[in-house]
Amino acid sequence: MIQTATQMTQNPLASRHAALRILEHVLDRKQPLDDGLDVYGVALSAQDRKFAHALVGLVFRHLSALDKATNGMLDKPIKLMRARHILRIGLAQLLLMDSVPPFAAINTTVELARTEGLDNFAGLINALLRRASREKPKMDLPAKDALPDWLAQKLRLDYGDDFPDLAEAMYARAPLFARARDAATAEAFEKIGADPFTGVAGCWQMPPDVGPATVPGLQKGTAYVQDGAAQIPALALASLLKTDGDVLDLCAAPGGKTAQLMDLLPGRIVHAVDSNPRRLQTLEENMTRMGLTPTVMQADGTRLPYGDGTFAAVLLDAPCSALGTTRRHPELVHVRLESDLESLALLQRDMLAEAFRVLKKGGVLVYAVCSLLKAEGERRTEKFAAKTPSAKRLTIDLGGIPVARPADDGALRTLPIDGMDGFYVTAFIKE
What we know:
By secondary structure, the protein is an alpha/beta fold.
């Protein structure tokens, strides 16, 4: 399907070189897309950076279909990874970007190959792109067939008949949500045509013409861009907390949940802990912009520097595969490995135990993951509950969120099918 992207770039070759480096950064070195954009997009103009971002996004979103189109034109696959990436860049422009004329898509891709020292491949790439321009191979590969086999199998087991629709939703484009921190900002949201999101207090869905940088109140600190599902854990904690004392936001960066907790629980001391110093710096910048002063600490979430029973509540948004966020991060489908789940499972287990240790009796623990995999959500907390007799499940009742599906034992599950990121949220009280 042809998709409108950005206008033509100011420096066509520079933007495509950056796109190539980002693909290598993510697909070959398994590094985060955002880091790649920061490193390889920093020297680009705003227009070229936007183009490079749009281009790699299309490659990630349609990677399996692009490779299927390529393999259909070849007797044997291209082994050199850089040449494959360059061909993906060319095909994405040719078949998916209506802002790039076919001759420009072909010529810039061939020139990219040559400037990358791949003269031996330039002729082949030229021939393949010209053939694709004539034949227009279909790019409508069903999403369920585009997922890696291991992931498709797990999701099929977890969701049964919903799997095909879920797979399609994983590749859809996500709407933009933001949280209004005061009435004036909510009024500004309403004026631009944003819609309040039923059941998630303070959450608004932005109209399509509003981007993250143009959300009213963002620069003043009265708004925060955050998916609707990501706003549920803090709301759940605030609704369940009955005891006095401090609150711990574990894995707090970049700070959306920390700010939300401070807004929902005025007068409470909120501790924001994360192990990543760079992300903690971002958290502190966000807190400064919003005029908030949590207690910030860098610490290992499996070995917290607090005594037993320190906190009245703990919010653990645990490290996970993040496969509930693929609408915004389509690259995750291609960089996550099945073996990643083993190390993540151990980390989730240890962090849950540590979070519960620092929780006082009568305190509330909210566990959340932005994952679709039940091994990281439902089954992870089932194992925790079975090994922790003093942990009693609580029912999360936020007054009705139409797109949140009640899970077992009072938890909530959101899915991309319903318009939000995939999240699992559950709560325990310490008896």
